[in-house]
Design goal:
It is built from two helices and no strands. The chain has about 55 residues and is an all-alpha fold. It is flat. The N and C termini lie far apart (about 55 Å).
């Protein structure tokens, strides 16, 4: 049986079409493919609804 954390990691990597495995494996895949093999960080496209500073 696959651990829930591993299953979630596999899903994220598959959705982003990225290699899933050890850092060494990903480095080898990046070298062979000539592109990034790790997952991309989450990007926030919209500003926060609760700004930390107020404008006077």
């Amino acid at each position: 049986m696959i651990a829930p954390t591993d299953l979630a990691a596999i899903r994220v990597h598959t959705q982003q079409q990225r290699a899933w495995g050890s850092d060494r494996f990903r480095a080898q895949m990046e070298a062979l493919a000539g592109r990034a093999a790790g997952i991309r960080p989450k990007i926030h496209l919209y500003p926060s609804k609760n700004p930390t500073s107020e404008i006077d």
